[in-house]
Structures are given as C-alpha cells and as structure tokens.
Amino acid sequence: MKVKTRFAPSPTGNLHIGSIRTALYSWLFARRYNGIFVLRIEDTDIYRSKSLSVDSIFKGLRWLGLNWDEGPYFQTQRLERYKEVIEIMLKEGKAYKCFCSEKEIEESRLKQIYKGEKPRYNRTCRNLSIKRNIDNKKYVIRFKNPTSGIVTFKDKIRGDITFNNSELDDLIIQRSNGIPTYNFCVVIDDLDMDITHVIRGEDHINNTPRQINILKSLKAKIPIYSHVSMILNENGKKFSKRDNAQNIIDYYKNGFLPEALINYIVRLGWSYGNQEIFNLLELKRLFNLDSISRSSSTFNIKKLLWLNKYYINNLSLNYVTNILKGYMEHDNINIKNGPNLECLLKLYKSRHNTLKEIANSCKCFYEEFQYLNKNYIKKYLILKNFSILKSFYNKIKNLSSWKIEILLKIIKNQSIESNALLKEINMLLRFILTGSICSPNISSIIFFLGKEKTLLRLKKAIFFINKINKEKIN
Ligand code: GLU
Does ligand 1 have an atom closer than 6 angstroms to the CB of 209? Predict the structure, then answer.
C-alpha cells in the first residue's frame, strides 16, 4: 500500500503555525515512506474562502519547501463529483432530503434543551415518503447516520476512540444552496484520492465518526487517523494571533530561516529522544506518528529565535548570504555600493537572532544615515570630541595601507593621545560611523566601511559639532 497523505486547508484566513504543523507532519510522513503528499484546498465555504488566503497557502508551503506531489485540488472544482455521489446515496436510501425550516428546527432544539436532552435534528424527514419530497420547498440533504451501535477508530496518536451512534446527528451533507458541506466533501476526496493517512488537528476528532459512517455507507476503506494536539501560548491559552500566530510568511518577513521554522514546528509535539536540532534529511528518515505527543505543546518564541540564530550560524555562509541579500534588496539597499555581504554576515551572524536584524545592522555600510537618537547626539556630538575626530580623520586620511591591525593600532593611539578611555573612543566612532552604539569591534567596522566612507562620516560628524557649536554661540 502506497502511503498517501494530504494537507487540506480551508482558505479562510492566514496560514498559521498550527496549520503548517499539520502540513509538515503529513509531508514528512509521506516522504518517510516514499509516499505521495496531496494539497487540497477546501473552499466550499464560498462566503469565507478568499483567493488571498489560497495565495498565502502556496507561498507559505513553497517557502518552507513542503512541495506537493498532487494537486492543488480545489473542492469547488469537484462539485459535480459530489453531486453524483449524493444522487446515488439518495437513490440507495443512504441520504434523504430534509424540508424542515430553520424555524421548525429551532423549535425542536429548544424543546430538547427544555427536556434536558442533547439537541440534535429530530429526524422528522428521515422516513418521509418519496411523494412528499416532490413539492417545491427548499431542502437540505442529510446523511442517514446509523441510530444504534458504535463507531470506533484507532487514532495513531491517541489510541482507540469510540462514539455511540445514538449521539450523532443526521449530518447535513448538502446545504439548501446546493453546495455540499465540509464533512461530506472531505470523505469523498479522501476516498477518491486514495488517502491512506489523515493527519489533522484535534478539533476534528468529533468529525471523524461522522466521516467514518459515511465512508462505511459507501463501503470504502477507512484511512488511518492521527489527531494532533493543540498549540498553547505561554499562559496555557489557545495560541492566537496575538501570540505570534501570524501568517507563516510573516516569519520570512521578520527574518526567520525556513530551516529554523521547520525544526521548531516539528518539535511542537514530536520528539526523538532529547534531540533538538534536526535537518530535513534526518527528519525524513526519523519522523513517525507514534512519537507525537498526546498533550498540547507550548509555543515559545525564545526557542524559535534561538534555533534561528543556530541556523544562521551553522548553515553555509553562501546560502545564508543569498537570503540576506533578499532582505537588503527589499529595503532598496544597493549592495554593490559597499563591502562583500558575506564578509559582513560573518561579522554579524553571532550577534543577532534574525536576518532582518542583521540586514538592519548592515545597511550603514551601503547607505548614509541620519543621526536619529537625541540622547546619543547630546552624548557624542559635543565640542570635547571635535579635536579627537579631527585628529582621527587625519590619521585615517594619511593611511596608505588598509589593514584591521593597523586600524586597531591607530584607534589605540588616538585614545592615548586624547587621554580618553579606549572604550570611549570606540563608542564615539561606533556612533558616528554606524549610527548605533552596538556593533562588532570598531576596527572591523572601519575596515569594511572603507577609507572613503569612513572619512566622509568623520567629516560629517566634525561639521555637525561645528555647526551646533556655532548655533550655540550665535
Ligand atoms: N479544511 C479543514 C481545516 O482547515 C481540514 C480538514 C481535514 O484535514 O480533514 O481545518
């Protein structure tokens, strides 16, 4: 039997961490067993489905490298097929038209609640004669769920799960607008697409017995189900947009590497001993459904940042540089205008958690900046530093050889000559050369900035101090 899994998102919102985890587990499971991974867009909720969400699904999966072997199928393109099955089910007495109005259903529901019963459709139309069915009233189509017995399935993560049929409703499989419902389409798709393993969120557990009953009525093979537990935020509440549950592509925008995200997401529920770092090759070899935890997992942004930093520092420099280039281009930074980006990455990679932060730090090597922080302006661009900067300017100007060791030496000399702490000189230069007070060692900064830009920035600071001072005197 060829393993076949599917990712079946409804395009009604953003593709977030929870959905991606389902996709990743389904994808890995298919890859592990040389199976097939299907992408199916469940868009029958025509009022809530958006093409923007479909795009975000494609973009997110592609960014993470979760390629699909079949699809994308769109349920709205399979309506004829669903109709065909519903016709057969009606003919064979496995489904029936229900003419009850919303008002009637609501009244019966209230009565049931009043009597302390579990509210469900009272099956008024289940045994209607065919003749009554012909009138022109609006109707939905319901599945004739067995009224007694049990439905059991062996969940790969949770073990045996059993439901009493008496607890299940006669499910609506086609709405009054003629569009079939989620639970029905899923069943027909899983059947037609030969899906062997269904991996999805635990919020679908209650749908599973209904889907199994429909499959049984069609004498179809039942797939193996795995329901993955919820993801919680650090306060133990359902992980939501406020807790970084944003669109997966926002992680790209915020400077995360796909390798870090994959590694992080796979560990949100799956484990292999105490191992924390997994590359894709390893995951394809090791991933299994039995090691997925039954308990919920907690989203921890610090761990994701830690992993991202790990991958920035451990993936090939060339690969990470190419991705970093994308962030620079996005901000219209012309990297031909300055040092080799790979050298800068080497310099900065151990200092930041994300590529966006690295890109921000690297910008000053390629374009000029304004002094923005008033406190630092007041602290560094002062008369006391005027002569230091002038003297340093001349030292740089007269340099004939451009080497880090030499730069280091002249910075030290400057500190002795100016009777200032080396630390103070470093901070002053850091601020005027990069616009920030955090950076790697200043000799490397000057080295990569180059003579021309360094002189220009020193000059700019000297002018600035001069101007401010003149304004003060006048
Ligand atoms: N379309 C469903 C959802 O987005 C998934 C259905 C399934 O995996 O069976 O929640």
Answer: no
